[in-house]
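Supplementary Methods. Inverse-folding protocol.

Structures were first reduced to a discrete structure-token string of length 407. This string, shown here, constituted the complete conditioning input.
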């Protein structure tokens, strides 16, 4: 044991390395086809727009200096204005003061956990759910319940009470979720609001992939439905976490939380304590690129990812053995696979990398209760269409050869 181990706070035992990040370190083998990453395709980054934006931010006599200076914890006002207008197009009417800029939406999730969760409080999530949210919340030592198809407020309340706990928040990724690719239909969004209302808890709506829709109609965010019910964002029980990571660039680390002002004020205090404010120049540059390029960039991303999703789904149709099922996402970056009975995702990964030089993320890490051993997540964001076809064929070869032999 390390000599400092006894100094660590108890909660640090729940801060474990993201299995995905650990896994990514192993994936630099030559010729490896990886469906593991789930990061945006860098070919989509608008290098020229960002170069110009940074040059302009640094070049102006007065503006240049302020973009290298400390700035406010709430975030760069023109960017918050842009986001408030963007939120209005989705039916969430709000002011810049309803927006806090965070260092990616990941930081928003951490602050929400910090603000709401005492040890033992209950967080309700989907299962599977975004691993990064579990990691962010885990530091605040909650317990988890899952919002299954027939979950009711009563069941959730009772389950929490049995553990001497109270439900504080429901965490949902309503559009093209990571990892499942699933989208909540309108009735499920309304039902989540009913349940939150009955429990008196918040909904944390993680909208990381909302812009990346390839078919079908946009659905209103839960935040918009909530506002419609209650008449104003100030009465809303929803905190909406948005990000530029999947549309313009993840590297600048610019996300936001949108919600009622009293909660936003508290979150701003958490921001102040954590890092004072997000990078000034990155916010200035993001604002300029969003203003000039957001719609075009989203359109380009949709075209690129739609083609890759279609190729992945068609390849699965062609190569998958009986007993393997997968989701058909309307957007986002992920297809979620349930393997034929008896195949373990982790063991399959070892064989897939060794025998066929193809990788994915085993699904278990995405379940708060560590179930889901026979699941895996495939991302179609990085490989080109031909490589996707080849990779799925290789993966299905390993799955086929892993099928338990029937006697
Ligand atoms: C569902 C979901 N939420 C939030 C994030 C965090 O994104 P960022 O912090 O880059 O905004 C991710 C990143 O992959 C994600 O998949």
């Amino acid at each position: 044991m390390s000599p400092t181990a006894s100094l660590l706070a108890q909660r640090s035992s729940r801060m474990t390395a993201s299995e995905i990040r650990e896994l990514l370190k192993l994936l630099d083998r030559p010729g490896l086809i990886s469906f593991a990453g789930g990061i945006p395709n860098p070919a989509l980054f608008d290098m020229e727009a960002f170069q110009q934006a940074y040059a302009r931010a640094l070049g102006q006599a007065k503006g240049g200096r302020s973009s290298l200076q400390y700035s406010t914890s709430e975030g760069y006002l023109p960017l918050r204005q842009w986001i408030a207008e963007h939120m209005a197009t989705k039916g969430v009417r709000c002011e810049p003061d309803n927006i806090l800029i965070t260092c990616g939406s990941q930081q928003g999730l951490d602050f929400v956990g910090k603000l709401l969760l005492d040890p033992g409080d209950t967080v309700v999530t989907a299962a599977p759910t975004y691993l990064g949210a579990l990691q962010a919340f885990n530091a605040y030592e909650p317990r988890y319940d899952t919002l299954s198809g027939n979950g009711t407020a009563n069941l959730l309340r009772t389950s929490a009470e049995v553990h001497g706990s109270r439900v504080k928040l429901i965490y949902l990724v309503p559009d093209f979720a990571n990892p499942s690719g699933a989208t909540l239909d309108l009735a499920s969004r309304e039902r989540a609001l009913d349940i939150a209302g009955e429990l008196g808890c918040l909904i944390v709506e993680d909208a990381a992939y909302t812009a990346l829709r390839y078919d079908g109609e946009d659905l209103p965010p839960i935040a918009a439905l909530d506002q419609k019910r209650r008449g104003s964002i100030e009465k809303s029980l929803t905190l909406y976490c948005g990000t530029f990571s999947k549309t313009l660039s993840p590297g600048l680390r610019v996300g936001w939380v949108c919600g009622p002002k009293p909660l936003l004020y508290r979150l701003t205090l958490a921001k102040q304590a954590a890092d004072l404010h997000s990078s000034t120049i990155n916010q200035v540059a993001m604002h300029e690129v969003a203003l000039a390029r957001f719609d075009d960039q989203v359109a380009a991303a949709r075209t690129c990812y739609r083609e890759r999703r279609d190729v992945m789904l068609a390849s699965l149709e062609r190569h998958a053995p009986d007993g393997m099922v997968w989701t058909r996402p309307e957007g986002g970056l992920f297809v979620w696979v349930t393997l034929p009975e008896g195949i373990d995702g982790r063991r399959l990964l070892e064989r897939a990398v060794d025998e066929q030089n193809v990788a994915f993320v085993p699904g278990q890490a995405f379940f708060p209760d560590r179930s889901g051993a026979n699941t895996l997540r495939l991302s179609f964001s990085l490989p080109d269409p031909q490589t996707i076809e080849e990779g799925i064929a290789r993966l299905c070869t390993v799955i086929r050869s892993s099928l338990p032999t029937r006697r």
